[in-house]
């Protein structure tokens, strides 16, 4: 919440947002723990669905509505389904992955986790956080920036930027997607067993 | 705007709550409990299940999902453009500066580049559901008389 918003809406709004934040954080963290502790890799993929949904909720809470919806469409509707397909493409052996995990692997995973956690906390402290509203507010002259401040969503602002300031990245994204498509199709087409695909 | 999504969240939570109530509480209260081995079978109607539910998926599902994600991301990029397109054209017309066709051309190029990718996967046969085997003529679906459509089904089961 912005400083102005805090002043306007008072303590109640602050605690209300805190409740929503912690609820969404729980919605993100609990399935994440589920991923780590579950034995079945398919269950892991379904737990991941909950985590991605929680992250989408966090985006919405930061008033990045377009990003939140994109998270639902692309990650939950696309990437997670792709993950499940990827699991189901494999044979049954890697289904129960935890039985195969050795002690050194756990130790290195814990070490890596600590390093990542320290890095994240460090960058969390070092970053000045803004809601979308705060970030766009300086350019109030722009009509679509006004739309964001009024709470009409961020899609229009993004569209304006994509057609003006960020036109080159926009076109490069299409080339990137083309490369990904061709590369992925090529790798998927190569048939290691020679036959079934 | 936040509150609109708060409504969605509350609706979501209540939906989960009611499903949980129904599945765990209501069923326990209302349903008769009969212990019978048939009750644990996959299809209670008596159809015996054949084999395991865990079958190895065909690689083509994966390729399809990959292609789907690429074009989904494309659609995500088109959405903000479509939101502002009319306003932008009107703005350009009113200002009298710049090319009115510019927003259209920009996105046309965007789609064209991805269209090349679509043509690529199409021509390479990644989107053919019934694919030609090595050294065999391409099969058609539904299988015509004398084609080997049946054989594929057997292989999938095995």
Question: What are the defining features of this structure?
Answer:
heterodimer, A: 197 residues, mainly alpha, 8 helices, disordered N terminus, B: 158 residues, disordered C terminus
Strand content of chain A: under 5%
Structural class of chain A: mainly alpha
> Strand percentage of chain B, roughly?
under 5%
The number of helices of chain A is 8
Question: How far is the first residue's CA from the last residue's CA of chain A?
Answer: 52 Å
- The N- to C-terminal Cα distance of chain B equals 54 Å
Order of helices and strands of chain A: HHHHHHHH
Quick synopsis:
The complex is a heterodimer of chains A (197) and B (158). Chain A is an all-alpha fold.
Question: What does this molecule look like?
Answer:
The complex is a heterodimer of chains A (197) and B (158). With 197 residues, chain A is mostly helical. Helices cover 76% and strands 0% of the residues of chain A. Chain A has a domain of 100 residues: NADH-ubiquinone/plastoquinone oxidoreductase chain 6, subunit NuoJ (Four Helix Bundle (Hemerythrin (Met), subunit A)), CATH 1.20.120. Chain B has 4 helices and no strands. The N and C termini of chain B lie far apart (54 Å). In chain B, 13% of the residues are buried. Chains A and B meet through α2, α3, α7 and α8 of A and α1, α2 and α3 of B.
């Amino acid at each position: 919440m912005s400083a102005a918003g805090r002043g306007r809406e008072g303590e109640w709004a602050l605690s209300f947002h805190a409740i929503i934040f912690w609820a969404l954080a729980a919605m993100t963290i609990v399935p994440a723990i589920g991923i780590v502790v579950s034995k079945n890799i398919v269950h892991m993929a379904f737990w991941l669905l909950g985590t991605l949904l929680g992250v989408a909720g966090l985006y919405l809470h930061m008033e990045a509505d377009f990003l939140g919806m994109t998270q639902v469409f692309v990650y939950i509707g696309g990437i997670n389904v792709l993950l499940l397909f990827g699991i189901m493409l494999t044979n049954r052996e890697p289904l129960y992955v935890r039985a195969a995990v050795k002690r050194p692997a756990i130790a290195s995973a814990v070490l890596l986790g600590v390093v990542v956690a320290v890095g994240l906390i460090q960058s969390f402290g070092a970053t000045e956080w803004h809601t979308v509203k705060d970030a766009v507010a300086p350019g109030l002259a722009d009509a679509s920036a006004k739309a964001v401040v009024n709470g009409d969503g961020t899609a229009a602002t993004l569209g304006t930027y994509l057609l003006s300031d960020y036109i080159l990245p926009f076109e490069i994204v299409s080339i990137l997607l083309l490369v990904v498509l061709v590369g992925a199709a090529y790798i998927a087409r190569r048939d290691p067993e020679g036959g079934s695909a | 705007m936040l509150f609109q999504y708060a409504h969605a969240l509350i609706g979501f939570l209540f939906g989960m709550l009611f499903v949980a109530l129904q599945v765990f509480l209501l069923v326990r209260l209302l349903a008769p409990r009969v212990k019978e081995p048939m009750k644990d079978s996959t299809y209670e109607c008596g159809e015996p299940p054949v084999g395991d539910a865990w079958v190895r998926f065909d690689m083509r599902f994966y390729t399809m999902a990959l292609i789907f994600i690429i074009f989904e991301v494309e659609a995500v990029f088109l959405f903000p453009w479509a939101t502002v397109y009319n306003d932008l054209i009107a703005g350009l017309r009113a200002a009298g500066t710049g090319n009115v066709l510019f927003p259209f051309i920009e996105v046309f190029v965007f789609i064209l580049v991805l269209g090349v990718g679509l043509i690529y996967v199409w021509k390479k046969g990644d989107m053919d559901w019934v694919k030609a085997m090595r050294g065999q003529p391409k099969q058609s679906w539904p299988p015509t008389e004398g084609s080997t459509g049946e054989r594929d089904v057997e292989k999938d089961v095995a």
